[in-house]
């Protein structure tokens, strides 16, 4: 994965400069830098980067909460930057499945963690999309079943005929099955 647009969120300018050099050597482009979590979040919303590195340390109190906000809102992949010796933080973050690096950073560990963060982000996004599609399918089935029941009851037809009528309306009106079924339910609920 080359040429990612990256944002750095770290209060330590020296660390940002060092990370920027390492990223540049890997072909990544740093498009923004911030000293605190809120500034990092503002940059992310404005620049829509491909990846963010955010420091979690006492000097950047909001780093952890901002990292989780970025992750929860699926704004971009996140890599946490942890201070050496903060093992309690490290184990806590490992539970949340956010990839992390321990400072001082080493070039050889950087590319694998970038690849992990980006591929994990894409996989979670894909799974969330699949979940939304499955929920929509279930909602469609429920409303179509309800509409079929209404047609069967009110028109005295069997289930197959009720479904055929919904399908026919869907094709004739160029509407989804769900939209036709919802219209049937609303129309009969008003009676």
Task: State the distance separating the first and last CA atoms.
Answer: 59 Å
User: Counting H and I runs of at least 4 residues, what is the number of helices?
Assistant: 7
How many β-strand stretches? 5
Uncertain spans: 90-94
* Rg estimate, integer Å: 25 Å
**CATH classification class of the largest domain:** Alpha Beta
Largest sheet: 5 strands, parallel
Category from helices, strands and their pairing: alpha/beta
- In the CATH hierarchy, the architecture of the largest domain is 3-Layer(aba) Sandwich
Strand content: 5-15%
Output mean pLDDT. Answer: 89
CATH superfamily of the largest domain: Response regulator
CATH fold naming of the largest domain? Rossmann fold
Helix fraction by DSSP (H/I, runs of at least 4) = 55-70%
Strand order of the largest sheet: 2-1-3-4-5
Provide the domain count: 2
Domain Response regulatory: 5-118
InterPro entries: ANTAR, CheY-like_superfamily, Sig_transdc_resp-reg_antiterm, Sig_transdc_resp-reg_receiver, WH-like_DNA-bd_sf
GO molecular function: RNA binding
Pfam families: ANTAR (PF03861)
Description of the structure:
- It is a single chain.
- The chain has 191 residues and is an alpha/beta fold.
- It has two domains: 5-105, Response regulator (Rossmann fold), CATH 3.40.50.2300; 130-189, Winged helix-like DNA-binding domain superfamily/Winged helix DNA-binding domain (Arc Repressor Mutant, subunit A).
- It is built from seven helices and five strands; from the N terminus they run βαβαβαβαβααα.
- It has helices spanning 13-25, 37-47, 63-72, 87-96, 107-155, 159-173, 177-189, and strands at residues 5-9, 29-34, 51-56, 78-82, 100-102.
- The chain has a five-stranded parallel beta sheet with strand order 2-1-3-4-5, with helices on both faces.
- Helix 2 packs parallel to helix 3 (63-72), helix 5 crosses helix 7 and helix 6 (159-173) crosses helix 7 (177-189).
- It is elongated and about 75 Å long.
- Residues 90-94 have low confidence and may be disordered.
């Amino acid at each position: 994965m080359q040429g990612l647009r990256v944002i750095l969120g770290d209060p330590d300018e020296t660390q940002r400069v060092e990370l920027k050099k390492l990223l540049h050597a890997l072909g990544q482009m740093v498009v923004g830098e911030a000293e605190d979590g809120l500034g990092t979040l503002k940059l992310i919303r404005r620049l829509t980067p491909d990846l963010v590195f955010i420091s979690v340390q006492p000097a950047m109190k909001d780093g952890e909460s901002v990292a989780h906000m970025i992750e929860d809102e699926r704004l971009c992949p996140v890599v946490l930057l942890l201070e050496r010796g903060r093992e309690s933080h490290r184990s806590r973050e490992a539970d949340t499945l956010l990839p992390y690096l321990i400072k001082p950073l080493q070039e050889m560990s950087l590319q694998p963690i970038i690849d992990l963060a980006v591929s994990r982000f894409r996989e979670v996004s894909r799974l969330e999309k699949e979940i939304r599609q499955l929920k929509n399918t279930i909602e469609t089935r429920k409303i179509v079943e309800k509409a079929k029941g209404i047609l069967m009851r009110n028109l005295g037809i069997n289930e197959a005929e009720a479904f055929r009528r919904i399908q026919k309306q869907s094709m004739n009106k160029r509407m989804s099955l769900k939209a036709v079924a919802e219209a049937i339910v609303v129309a009969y609920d008003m009676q």
